[in-house]
Amino acid sequence: MAAILFDLDGVIIDTEGAYTLFWDSIEKIYPTGISDFAHAIKGTNLNKILSNYDSVDVRNDIVNRLDLFEADMDFPVYDAITDFLDSLSDAGIRRALVTSSADSKMAQVYQKLPWLRSRFDVIVTGSMVTHSKPDPEGYLKAARLLDEDPSRCVVAEDSIQGLQAGRAAGAKVIGLTTTNSREDVEPLADEVIDSWTGYSVERLLTLLES
After folding, report:
1. Residue 188 near residue 160 (C-beta atoms within 8 A)
2. For site-directed labelling of 152, which of 20, 59, 88, 195 has its Cα 20 to 30 A away?
């Protein structure tokens, strides 16, 4: 048996650019002083992001702004990913989605992408873990729910903190260059790809056995 554990944003759906614009706007309204804030928080859950703000009123305002933003968001799907997910299912390879996204955002995703849930055996959201990426908790939880040893899993990630989480979980790691440069992704990944186009089950199994 083998399993592949996917991040969502930047791996399944092409949304990281939109989130960068959103968090850049928040940084202008409520500056944290963190260098390149929108990039620094990628891969982390909302609770960890909000920990950068002391004021409850500020945190509540950010949540309200985020809810409004996500309610109007598009969730464009990367080319070839649905075909790849179907080929994994046909080959008997189990699939998990491991995202830092809040349940309110996931409700929007499920509404606009109704096929998403049926493509995965397990979905782990930000509300289901105590520790955000780069902690491996989410990926370890997904492996446990799949009854799979993490060493028999492959993690697909785009963010630096997500790649670190996959490594810390003891899985093989596919790094996508959708958010970070190949130079930044390469040290944290066993394989680096620019997109899912042409990626096959056979290639995945070769990576797992390497």
Report:
1. yes
2. 195
